[in-house]
Each structure stands twice: as C-alpha cells, then as structure tokens.
Amino acid sequence: MSEELLASATYLGPVHLRVIDIAAALPVWVDAVGLAVLGDDGATVGLGVDGKALIVLHAGADAVLPPKSRDLFHVAIHVTTRKELARVAARLKASGLRHSAQDHLISESLYVSDPSGNGIEICFDTPERYASRQETADGRVTLIARDGSAHSGLEPLNVAGLLRELGNSGHVEPMLAADAFIGHIHMRARSPEALMAFYLGVLGFRPHIQSRSFGLFDCGTDRRPHMVAFNIWARDELREPPPGAAGLDHFTVVVPSAEDLAAVARQLGNANLPSTQTDGALHLADPEGNRLRIVVAGN
C-alpha cells in the first residue's frame, strides 16, 4: 500500500449523473429527495442545498441503466438528524414513488431511483448503535449492537416509527436541510480487488470492508471510512451497461490543499496511470472506467 495520500479532511463533492430526460428526473430529485435547482443550462442541471451543489444531471442518455449493470449502484446523500430522514420519508410517501427502507444498524436508509435507473440513498448515520462485526468462515456477516443483539444489517426500517419524529402536524417540509452532503458512492463491480489496489495503493484511501465472501469492498478516510464502495452481489448476472446508458458520469473527490492534489498526481505518474489536469482539477478513471475528478477545497 502506498503512502496514505488522502487526508482525513478529504470529502466527496458533486456527483454527475447521466439521465434520459432531466424534466422527468426532477420530480424525484426535487419533490421527493428535496434538492433545489441551482442552475440549468438546458444540457445540465445542478441540484443541491443552500447553494451547494450535490448532484449534477446531464441530459442525453439513450437508455435506462439496467438493474445489475456494472456502474452506479447508488449515490448516498447523508442527513445529520433522524428528523430530517423522517422528512424525506414523508416526501417519499406523499410522492407515491416506489421506494424502500432498511436499517443497517450503522445507519438508517431510504432508497429510491430516478426514471433513468440511477439509484439514490438518503442516509442517517447511527454509529452509536454499533459495537462490532463478526464474519464466519463461510462469509456470513453479523453486526453486533451496543446492547449485544445480533443484526444482519439488512433489516427493514420501521418507517412508521421514523415518521413519529415529525409529530402529528401533517406538514411535509419540501426541502432537504442545508447541511446534507454526499456521504458515499456505491458501484457494482467485476474486479473489486483491482479497484481496491487503485483506490488504496494509488489514491491513498484507507481500507474498510474487504470481503469477497460478503461481496463488499469499500474505503474512505479516518473521518469517513465508508466513502467509495463496490459490491459483487450480482455475481454472474452482472452485465455491462448498453452504450449511451444512464448512470455515473463522474464523481468528485475534494482534497484539502494543492499539495494533496499534487501528491495524487505524482502517485498516478509513478504508477504510469493516465490523467489530465485542467483548471486546477485532476481528471482520471479507475480500472473499471468509473470516472472521477479530484479538486482542491474552495475551487
């Protein structure tokens, strides 16, 4: 593993997604998720909170991203209070959109997709409930709560209980809170070990879960251990997305300083991996073609 290049202050910036029709996508991203439109030039629409871009939609995809395609699994927008997660749950319920909810013990999550097949997770982190993780020889993973109880991490979330956070007013808040942020991005993968060699050994992320038997590989920083994740749950059913499909265009990694950016550029050069640098941003792709852009905070 390389020198750990990425500081704990590294975080994820805007995630750029391809869609077939921006107008068709906005009821999900704006009305249900609660993002505000920050800018629209016809070909792209920026969405975010309090003037801060979280998602950029790019028009022009020719096909929906099929289920079990190698590409985006979901982009995760994290909220900082359980009441805020309940507000999203209320909007999803009112929207009539098909959605789901899971209790991962380490977090509580709501899931929905836009009409182009781009997966969306709204996540509230609950690390105070989690104590440890046990993995058996056959790959079964059990999460142990602080009270000693065992969990799969895939239990259904009690949405009725979550909605009680809102009381009995019946009011549905239309917008996501200003402190929402991109917490992680999750892709389907063919060769997670090769991907981890890149994200850990070249870019300098720290390893978190690395389990072929469980089917999940992820990495992050000391501050956020789960930032970039890959799963192999589709196994033999995984397929390449068709040409022109919706899905991930690129995601953004924000480093604290120009020195951090220069260190990543040097590491890419030392590994003889292609990248380009324009307008203070480093553009590159991982071994499976997922594109990312590394920028300095404030730029």
From TrEMBL:
Kinase as UniProt keyword: no
GO molecular function: dioxygenase activity
Transmembrane helix in keyword set: no
UniProt KW keywords: Dioxygenase, Oxidoreductase
Gene3D superfamilies: 2,3-Dihydroxybiphenyl 1,2-Dioxygenase, domain 1
Domain of life per record: Bacteria
Annotated Pfam families: Glyoxalase (PF00903)
Domain named VOC: residues: 11-125, 181-299
Name assigned to this protein: Glyoxalase/bleomycin resistance protein/dioxygenase
Lineage: Bacteria, Pseudomonadati, Pseudomonadota, Alphaproteobacteria, Hyphomicrobiales
